[in-house]
Every structure is written in C-alpha cells, then in structure tokens.
C-alpha cells in the first residue's frame, strides 16, 4: 500500500460512554504515525473479556474499584494483528521494519523502559505504561498507530488469523502455567467457568507437559476440553469438586490456575492442592472479593500463592512461538468485524468454545 492510498477516515467500533452500546463509526479519523511510530493496517483482532468489562464499566482496578478513568470514545481491541503501512517521519525502512511487516497490537501500548519493572523484563507492571484499553485506541479500528520502541514484531511466517489471541489470552495462559511452576507430568487444574481463557490455559498446560484437568460447565466445553487431551470436571454436576480433583490426581493437584472471575471459583481451592503446590490467579472478581484460605493452611502445607497479570513482550513472543510451532493450536472462528456486538453478547453468556477472531 502506498502512503497515498491511506484514507483519511476509517471504520472503528466505538463506545461513547461506559455502559453504553458499541457502535460503528465509518468516519473515524485515521491516526498519523508520529516520531518513533508506525501506522498499521489491522487484519484480524481477537475479542478479550476485558474489552467487554471496560465497555460495560465493570473492569476492576488494583484498588478493587471499577476502572472508569478511560479515554472516550473508547476503541478497544488488544489482540490485533496487522501490517505496517507507513513509518513515522524521519524513519527509513530496514530489514526488520518496513511496509508489510507483520506486527501485533497488544494490551500494553507504551512503557517507560527505565523503571525497575521495565529493566527486569516485567514491564507489564510499569507504573508509567499506557495501554490499548484505557489510554489509546486499539485494534477495533482499521488503522492503528504503534510505538516502535515497544513494537510486537511477530514471526513473519505465522498465520495472522491465529496469532491475535496469543497476544493477550495466550500469553496470560502461558505465563500463568509458568508461574504455577508445574513440571512435566505433574497435575494442573484449570478452574474456569464461561471464560475463554480456560481453553488457552488448558492448551498451554498440555503444551508444557502437564497433565491437565479443565473445570468448567456444559457438554460443549466438555467435548472441547477432552478433545484437547485434558480431563474434564463439570462443576455443576460434581458432588464435591475437591474430592473429584483429589481422586483423579491421587491426593491433590500440583498446581491450580483460576481463570474464572467468579468469586465462587476461588472457594476451597487450598484443599485440592498438594503439599508444596501452587495457586496462580488470573481471573479478577468484581469488587473487593478476598481469597479465603487460612494462613495456617498456607504455612503448614507450604502453598505458593500468586497473581498473574498478562506477560512481558518477551513472554508474549514465547507464547506466539508455541502457536507458530503448532504446539498450541488455537481453535479460531473468523467472523466479520461488524459482528462485534453479537460476539460481546456471546461472551456475556460465556458460551464460546474456542476463540472468535474478527476480520477487519
Ligand atoms: Zn485481554
Ligand atoms: Zn517502566
């Protein structure tokens, strides 16, 4: 695409106020790449649960309060894959970055590169970071500007349809399994319910050599999770979930990852974990829900408990690479961009097995 063929306006999915509907604006301005920026034509984008929560105003911050301080109109999308169409002023193309280079639009948009988190490869915790959810327009638009100092250069041979979900859900799942510190052949229980991330976590757990139990509800989820090679427990049918997990794992699982954001998913977790095992939490319940595990239990049974917030750029590319190598096979359904409102409805009901990717 030559720079001349870049239009002045584009279609974007915008939310005018939190709690309001998502609408399509066909006259949304195409941003211009500034210094150290590139303009990207978005090809595909995944839809993340946090897009839905941000749109609805139900996303919870670290203080337990709803996140309301966001850029409006809000343009979500942070599982985007696109190609560079223009470089910022004074930039010349080189071997790695030129027109046509395949890049990702991730949650984090910019980081400071200087703080203790940035310099230690944990830049997802950078306190000066901005993101494509609260501060900058994401991939729910045809053209997006990205910072070249924090650019997600994808493997150029990866299928752009399947790479998107790896950029948020995939890396979150990958990092959670790594944080859970589950070794080859050990047991990992993934506690989900109606969130897509459960499937990814099951897949990354299997890819990293664990024996996995997916805990979710419904026959469709069961078929899907079992088809991946994991065991399945339907928490709506189990008489005693802890008991079932202990039975399958002969005494308790080595690790638990909770992907669900429902407060009930966090109950009685300690009882299903083996001595010395770990609990890694990903889902964020609304409000100030607390983890109810007696301190005595944590100490005496030597449990490791930690939270998990997406992953760094390096970890994202590791998660992407497992997809590229075919070790994790995303089950992706491609739908037109204009289906976003229906996809949100499906996400609300929690009935999407696999992932929906929108084609822009
Ligand atoms: Zn996300
Ligand atoms: Zn920083």
Secondary structure topology:
Elements: E1 9-15, E2 22-29, E3 37-46, H1 49-56, E4 80-87, E5 102-105, E6 108-110, E7 130-131, E8 143-147, E9 152-153, H2 160-163, H3 169-180, E10 187-191, H4 197-207, E11 211-216, H5 219-228, E12 231-234, H6 241-248, E13 253-258, E14 273-281, H7 295-300, E15 304-307, H8 313-324, E16 332-336, H9 340-349, E17 355-359
Parallel strand pairs: 10-11, 10-13, 11-12, 13-14, 14-15, 16-17
Antiparallel strand pairs: 1-2, 3-4, 3-8, 3-17, 4-5, 5-9, 6-7
Give me some keywords for this one.
seven-stranded mixed beta sheet; alcohol dehydrogenase (NAD+) activity; 360 residues; 17 strands; single chain; Rossmann fold; six-stranded parallel beta sheet; binds zinc ion; ADH-like_C; alpha/beta; Quinone Oxidoreductase, Chain A, domain 1
Write a concise synopsis of the structure shown.
With 360 residues, this protein is α/β, with parallel strands linked by helices. The protein folds into 2 domains: 3-168 and 311-359, Quinone Oxidoreductase, Chain A, domain 1, CATH 3.90.180; 170-307, 3-Layer(aba) Sandwich (Rossmann fold), CATH 3.40.50.720.
Let me know the average pLDDT. 93
**Amino-to-carboxy terminus distance:** 16 Å
What is the helix content? 10-25%
Question: Outline, from the CA principal axes?
Answer: globular
Chemical compounds bound to the protein: zinc ion
At the third CATH level, what is the topology name of the largest domain? Quinone Oxidoreductase, Chain A, domain 1
- What is the alpha-carbon Rg in Å? 20 Å
CATH H-level name of the largest domain... which superfamily? Medium-chain alcohol dehydrogenases, catalytic domain
Per DSSP E runs of 2 or more residues, the count of β-strands stands at 17
GO cellular component, one term: cytoplasm
Cofactor: Zn(2+)
Keywords: Metal-binding, NAD, Oxidoreductase, Zinc
Family: Belongs to the zinc-containing alcohol dehydrogenase family.
């Amino acid at each position: 695409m030559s720079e001349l063929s870049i239009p002045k306006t584009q279609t974007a999915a915008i939310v005018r106020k939190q709690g309001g509907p998502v609408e399509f604006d066909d006259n949304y301005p195409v941003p211009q790449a500034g210094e150290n920026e590139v303009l990207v034509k978005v090809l595909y984008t995944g839809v993340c649960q946090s897009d839905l929560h941000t749109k609805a105003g139900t996303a919870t911050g670290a203080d337990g309060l709803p996140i309301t301080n966001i850029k409006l109109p809000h343009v979500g999308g942070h599982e985007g894959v696109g190609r560079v169409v223009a470089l910022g002023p004074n930039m010349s193309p080189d071997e790695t970055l030129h027109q046509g280079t395949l890049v990702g639009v991730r949650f984090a948009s910019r980081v400071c590169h200087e703080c203790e988190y940035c310099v230690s490869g944990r830049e997802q915790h950078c306190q000066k970071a901005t993101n494509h959810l609260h501060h900058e327009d994401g991939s729910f638009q045809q053209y997006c500007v990205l910072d070249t100092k924090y650019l997600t250069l994808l493997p150029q041979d990866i299928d752009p349809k399947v790479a998107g979900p790896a950029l948020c859900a995939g890396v979150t799942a990958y990092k959670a399994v790594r944080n859970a510190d589950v070794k080859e052949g050990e047991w990992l229980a993934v506690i989900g319910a109606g969130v897509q991330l459960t499937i990814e976590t099951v897949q990354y757990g299997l890819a990293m050599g664990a024996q996995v139990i997916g805990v979710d509800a419904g026959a469709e989820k069961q078929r899907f999770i079992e088809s991946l090679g994991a065991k399945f427990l339907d928490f709506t049918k189990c008489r005693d979930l802890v008991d079932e997990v202990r039975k399958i794992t002969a005494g308790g699982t080595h690790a638990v990852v909770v992907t669900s954001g429902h407060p009930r998913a966090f109950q009685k977790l300690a009882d299903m974990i083996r001595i010395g095992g770990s609990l890694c939490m990903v889902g964020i319940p609304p409000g100030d829900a607390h983890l109810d595990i007696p301190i005595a239990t944590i100490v005496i049974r030597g449990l490791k408990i930690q939270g998990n917030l997406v992953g760094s750029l390096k970890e994202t590319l590791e998660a992407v690479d497992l997809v590229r190598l075919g070790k994790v096979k995303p089950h992706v359904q491609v739908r037109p961009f204009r289906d976003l409102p229906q996809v949100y409805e499906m996400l609300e009901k929690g009935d999407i097995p696999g992932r929906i990717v929108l084609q822009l």
